[in-house]
Amino acid sequence: MELRTLHYFLTVAAEQNITHAARKLNISQPPLSRQLSQLEEELGVTLFIRGKRRIQLTEEGKYLAQQAQHILDMAQHTAQQLAQMKSQEVKGVLLLGITETCSAGVLPGILPQFSRLYPHVSYNIWCGSSTDVSQRVEQGLLDIGIVREPISMENLEFSRISQEAWIAVAPKGHPLAAKGKAEVDIRFSEVIHSKPETPPATLDQICQYPLFIPSRQPLQNEVHNWLSTNGGSYQIIGMYNQISSIIPLVAGNMGIAIAPPSIKKYTDDRKLDYIDIASPSLVTDIYMICARRKLLSAGARAFWDFTAPSDKQSRPLNHPGYSPESYPDQ
């Protein structure tokens, strides 16, 4: 498969009409039809359902369209990075993956400063769950990811950049609000705990109310284990993969959300109370990751070096002189 052929295929898929696609590609229709037929013959599958007025993708065609877009994006990104390496200037596009809460808690403390140091680096930011981000990093679709544990690090380089003690998010005026007020540090969302005269709410107190918890399975398991610490009962009224989806329900007094403190940065404190939790607290780490043994572009490497604290848990990046024996598998 040639990149040009994949480009032709995607154009036809988008236009749903060969004549329109040929006009857009500035080629005649017969050569375009031949290219598509040759592609189907090469792959041994039917890619299109051909109608009188428009054509549609088969299931095989839909799959190829998805993969073809990834291939073309990666080819373009590779060409850009090679040009950058030749010029020896830190520039280009950084493909960055991040979770919703990490985006609010981490990026504001990093990107503005990094951008001032490296003004010729631009950003393509993709948001998803920690599992989705790590998978795209492993597949080479993202240069760097910022994710929340628990996450498998087997095929990843990593650096711990933050730690968060989770909080309870309740409707404004909730009875537990007097127990503790959560505050968030500007950089990396480090938690500043409540003043002594306003102690955090206990886990037993939190468990008296219906709860919203994360749906991502590894994190969900960790939250369940934490909620069960004191042996008491609790009620899960709902789960979320994006915390913003259940905030209106919390504000409507349907339940309390267990969430990272960075949520305070992009929710309305006029409708919500943010409550520290103790006895015991739930603490998770935030990691920066990249594919193991991958040569990063100059921009991605600069971002890694800028962001990774040297005094926190990490597995070192590949660099000249790197040896697989320099650290064990984890």
Structure, described:
The chain has 330 residues and is α/β, with parallel strands linked by helices. It has 3 domains: 3-83, Arc Repressor Mutant, subunit A, CATH 1.10.10.10; 89-162 and 284-307, Periplasmic binding protein-like II (D-Maltodextrin-Binding Protein, domain 2), CATH 3.40.190.10; 167-178 and 199-281, Periplasmic binding protein-like II (D-Maltodextrin-Binding Protein, domain 2, 3-Layer(aba) Sandwich). 36% of the residues lie in helices and 23% in strands. It is built from 11 helices and 16 strands. The strands form 4 sheets. It has a 6-stranded mixed sheet with strand order 4-3-5-15-6-16, with helices on both faces. α9 links the parallel β11 (211-214) and β12 (236-240). The longest helix is centred in the first third of the chain and has 29 residues, at 59-87.
What's the alpha carbon Rg, rounded to whole Å?
A: 24 Å
Query: How much is the average pLDDT?
Result: 84
Largest sheet: 6 strands, mixed
The geometry reads as: elongated
Give the uncertain stretches in residue-range form.
Answer: 184-198, 318-330
Stated plainly, the CATH topology of the largest domain is called: D-Maltodextrin-Binding Protein, domain 2
Topology, number of strands: 16
H-E string = HHHEEHEHHEHEEEEEEHEHEHEEEHE
In CATH's first tier, which class of the largest domain applies? Alpha Beta
- Derived from helix and strand composition plus strand pairing, the structural class reads alpha/beta
At the fourth CATH level, what is the homologous superfamily of the largest domain? Periplasmic binding protein-like II
User: Cα distance, first to last residue?
Assistant: 37 Å
Annotation field: number of helices:
11
In percent terms, what proportion of residues is strand? 15-25%
| Helix fraction bin | 25-40%
What is the CATH architecture annotation of the largest domain? 3-Layer(aba) Sandwich
The largest sheet has its strands arranged as 4-3-5-15-6-16
Overall number of structural domains: 3
